Amino acid sequence: xxxTLLVANRGEIARRVIRAARTxxxxxxxxxxxxxxxxxxxxxADRAVALRGSTSAETYLDAEQVLAAARxxxxxxxxxxYGFLSxxxxxxxxxxxxxxxxxxxxxxxxxxxxxxxxxxxxxxxAGVPTLPDALLSGDDPxxxxxxGEHVGFPLLVKASAGGGGSGMREVRAxxxxxxxxxxxxxxxxxxxxxxxxxxxRLLDAPRHIEIQVLGDAHGHVVHLGERECSIQRRHQxxxxxxxxxxxxxxxxxxxGATAVALAEKLGYVGAGTVExxxxxxxxxxxxxxxxxxxxxxxxxxxxxxxxxxxxVSIADGEPLPFAQADVRPRxxxxxxxxxxxxxxxxxxxxxxxxxxxxxxxxxDDALRWEDALGDHGEVSAFYDPMIAKVIAHAPTRTAAxxxxxxxxxxxxxxxxxxxxxxLVAVLRDPDFLAGETRTDFLERHADLRTPPPATxxxxxxxxxxxxxxxxxxxxxxxAHLAPPGWRLxxxxxxxxxxxxxxDGEVVPALGxxxxxxxxxxxxxxxxxxxxxxxxxxxxxxxxYVDDGEGHSAWREVPRLPAPDAAAGGAxxxxxxxxTVVEVLVREGEHVVAGQKLVxxxxxxxxxxxxxxxxxxxxxxxxxxxxxxxxxxxLVTLGAHE
Length: 641
Description:
By secondary structure, the protein is of the alpha+beta class. The protein has 5 domains: 4-103, Rossmann fold (3-Layer(aba) Sandwich), CATH 3.40.50.20; 132-201, 2-Layer Sandwich (Dna Ligase, domain 1); 207-449, D-amino Acid Aminotransferase, Chain A, domain 1; 454-476 and 505-558, no CATH class; 578-638, CATH 2.40.50.100. 45% of the residues are buried.
């Protein structure tokens, strides 16, 4: 029987596993990298072990360090969560070799499903429908083209190992295939240590449907219905729900039976997910994830189960506590992934300090918040930028969407840019509410990335200016003697005070705006007869304003900029902190505007640095493998001679 469980992960999934283990009376061990030393999962576990290093490869992917942590703490089991080592068959075997119980499927199942093109072959043997595909084994572009014509365009180039959209490229015409294959291979090699890719027919705008399966060591396999995960960006899920608005009871039965047949063929033990693409009433095998999914909470809410606790009991040799006939969904659940990223700028990750993170997490009608961080913390550039998963459960789909949108809108999230407003806009969009959710949803609704402000900007600006002045008066007893913008010389004009906000710099013009009950922490602001109760918090010189529906951040622009404010290299700088994965130019090389010079990798994304103008490379400041901070100069360019 498992007594001490090492959680080989971080963030919200580590916290989730620790909570489930506590309900079972199982002791827990956390591991953590140097950037995660103060992370909540470390404090919540019974024991914790520090790992040497910062990056994923140095820490959470270092099997030797993880096993050493298990030995040091007397752990007798390992739960891998998802990502990192969760689908690493070699690590699962190493755990067994060290006498540890692996909370997951046996290594043979992980191996069978871990390579996508072999997984498809096994799926076909189990009678699961599949799309046309072709494995690329050589380096001849003409051979690639012939394979592409056999598969049919449009198609996807896909990494055979790994997942999450890495090593995946969309190709719509033969002349774009060679570059896509080379690019996908390079990314797959970096991400998974395996550059094998294959081609697969691309369905335009299908639905992404997955079936949750559970198998025990006694030969019983059941499914817990479907989840729909069609709303995605960069092939990564953003909104998930159960059940799907497009799946009828008859289709659910067919898809579930197909998923169970594949699991039975594998002799599958543990929790797993069989993923399909759904085109009208035709479905095709996509892949099988031999681990817990990020979106597992929607299944838990709809079916009243604890999947993590079930994983542990199955690993302990217990039989499943229910049969397929006992599975009955109730209501509807929707989950969104709250990321530190900027939807207005191509979902660019925005690591940094999360100054305040507050939400309602109690009461009968509360949302379920699966938080990676506490009331504040650091969104690290070394890992995925997820802040939380947020889940609503209600009797109907519409009620769940409304509940989730309202809860998100009312939270205080101060610091890096997030996708919160995009998520709220999606949940309130008429097409979403009508169930029109396909994989091209965000492409067809690009306006949702920059929704109009829920509250007039001038209201928040007035609150920021008034509350900032109130804060100064509170902290400086003499400040009330001189109004903002005071002048020493008789007749000198009062200098204009400029504020920077969501739409750039503005000089406050607050005519027609009324203010009441002004304190450093908030104010009642009236505009056109409507009163807005604004909360204001000050962090690092920025005033964050929330009113329950609208959110904005404001900074008073210094009248005398710092001497180095305009300093910078004569070339591209890093937009985010990250690791250099490609340097594509040499010193003395002539480049043209828009040419890719350097590629960074941060938060599971590639970030190319481009030349802003024609020029000559004078200095290359970085090398492959080097970690660089945000705004570091990568290349210095000079003018053509």
